[in-house]
Write a structure and sequence with these properties.
Order of helices and strands: HHHHEEHH
Strand order of the largest sheet: 1-2
Number of helices: 6
Oligomer: single chain
């Protein structure tokens, strides 16, 4: 017997940036829970999660047009490959989640097409559209969550289930799919 479709919209917009970012926040939180028992800050799982957070924070700074080379920008750039403790990761994740929610709540549909100039980690000049940057943030996070899941399993533990479809089912069962 087949289940009813999770999304009742006959033409769902799977690339909706608000949906993708909401999913990304949920998946990052689940991943954090799966490594919250790590006690050694040099543990690869924690390093990967720190990188996931650090890279997302840098992308958010670029989206917010933080001046390249400024002290706050350079501080964020140094934290792209951090060695944070579990509690530091938890605090940074909480800050990041709130900051991206704030950014997304102020973003208009027309701004999704805005071209953002930025410099990569090596200082090379680049530019990308806001919507593409948001997709990159989610894609990059997914990549590293997969790496973390592999290492959690290798350590004899159960990795977090972070599939988009699981998030969608949970969202639908909570009756809040219209909020995203």
């Amino acid at each position: 017997m087949f289940r009813k479709p999770v999304n009742r919209n006959p033409k769902p917009n799977l690339m909706n940036p608000n949906r993708l970012i909401a999913y990304n926040n949920w998946a990052n939180q689940r991943t954090f829970v799966s490594i919250s028992d790590v006690t050694d800050s040099s543990d690869n799982r924690l390093k990967l999660f720190g990188h996931l957070i650090g890279a997302n924070r840098l992308w958010l700074a670029r989206l917010n047009k933080l001046e390249y080379g400024s002290e706050p920008y350079l501080a964020l750039q140094k934290e792209v490959f951090p060695t944070w403790t579990v509690s530091e990761c938890e605090a940074k994740l909480s800050e990041l989640t709130e900051a991206i929610k704030t950014f997304m709540s102020s973003l208009t549909e027309s701004q999704l097409a805005d071209l953002i100039p930025f410099r990569d980690i090596r200082g090379n000049a680049n530019q990308a559209v806001v919507e593409e940057i948001l997709f990159n943030v989610v894609n990059h996070s997914t990549y590293h969550r997969g790496q973390i899941a592999s290492r959690v399993r290798a350590a004899g533990n159960t990795p977090a289930i972070t599939d988009y479809y699981v998030w969608l089912r949970e969202l639908t069962s909570e009756g809040s799919s219209s909020d995203v």
